[in-house]
UniProtKB/TrEMBL annotation:
<dbReference type="Pfam" id="PF00291">
    <property type="entry name" value="PALP"/>
</dbReference>
<dbReference type="InterPro" id="IPR001926">
    <property type="entry name" value="TrpB-like_PALP"/>
</dbReference>
<comment type="pathway">
    <text>Amino-acid biosynthesis; L-cysteine biosynthesis; L-cysteine from L-serine: step 2/2.</text>
</comment>
<keyword id="KW-0198">Cysteine biosynthesis</keyword>
<dbReference type="InterPro" id="IPR036052">
    <property type="entry name" value="TrpB-like_PALP_sf"/>
</dbReference>
<feature type="domain" description="Tryptophan synthase beta chain-like PALP">
    <location>
        <begin position="6"/>
        <end position="278"/>
    </location>
</feature>
<dbReference type="InterPro" id="IPR005856">
    <property type="entry name" value="Cys_synth"/>
</dbReference>
<comment type="similarity">
    <text>Belongs to the cysteine synthase/cystathionine beta-synthase family.</text>
</comment>
<dbReference type="InterPro" id="IPR050214">
    <property type="entry name" value="Cys_Synth/Cystath_Beta-Synth"/>
</dbReference>
<keyword id="KW-0028">Amino-acid biosynthesis</keyword>
<keyword id="KW-0663">Pyridoxal phosphate</keyword>
<dbReference type="InterPro" id="IPR005858">
    <property type="entry name" value="CysM"/>
</dbReference>
<protein>
    <recommendedName>
        <fullName>Cysteine synthase</fullName>
        <ecNumber>2.5.1.47</ecNumber>
    </recommendedName>
</protein>
<dbReference type="InterPro" id="IPR001216">
    <property type="entry name" value="P-phosphate_BS"/>
</dbReference>
<keyword id="KW-0808">Transferase</keyword>
Amino acid sequence: MGNIIDTIGNTPLVEITSFHNNPNVKIYAKLEGNNPAGSVKDRPALNMIQSALERGDIKRGDKLIEATSGNTGIALAMIASMFGMEIEIVMPANSTRERTLTMEAFGAKVTLLENMEVCRDYAEEKAAREGIFILNQFANPDNYKAHIKTTGPEIWRDTQGKITHFVSAMGTTGTIMGNSIYLKQQNPNIQIVGCQPTEESSIPGIRRWPQEYLPKIFDPSRVDRIIDIDQADAIEKSRLLARKEGIFAGMSSGGAFHAALKVANELDEGVIVFIVCDRGDRYLSSNLFG
């Protein structure tokens, strides 16, 4: 028996069965919404805090600050509460109310600002000014290392090493970087496919960063292909995942699924795994399922 932190990881891998007809191409969804705080970000949140504790960068009772579009903040709020730490989450004002309420339920202070770039600047400046520890998921190697330790090995195990394509949304890029490193070590021929929104699209959890805000952990050489996702396609695929596969997930997961289907339609055979990064209940106050 352990505590809630011990339930992070080992999420289900389920087959998608309703959307294509080639029996030699398999599509699997990695259900990261099954993590206790509801998203793939539970993994890096835990690894960033635990690793900082092990190095002595922080200690129980310290104050933390982080800028996030939502899921990392919820995970950090949960895990910080387990370690007796105060945390301020800085988030864009257009984030769904569910996100703010969930963070506050875990005891976090939530600050809402204009957009993600402003949030990042605010968090870095306040950390420097007041001596608060910033986890900085955008430049913190412990972000992607969480996936080298856990997500990648789980996918390799659960596909019996048969995975040919890995598909992921790109926000902080920690998920795609860590899985790319691990999976390419097992088989260099595995194709790593990233998703970013088209210029005119807004998809929570997927970003098309201005050059000056590009995450420092991002190494473009680790991504074989990037597929641009239109907001309408991401919404449509999120709804279809719920209605045809019983997978209740957010818009970035719909975007990753759209990319996975595009890849599947190009193949004669293969095993595709895409990341379902969170749960759909984070978006009920938005028009995603309306």
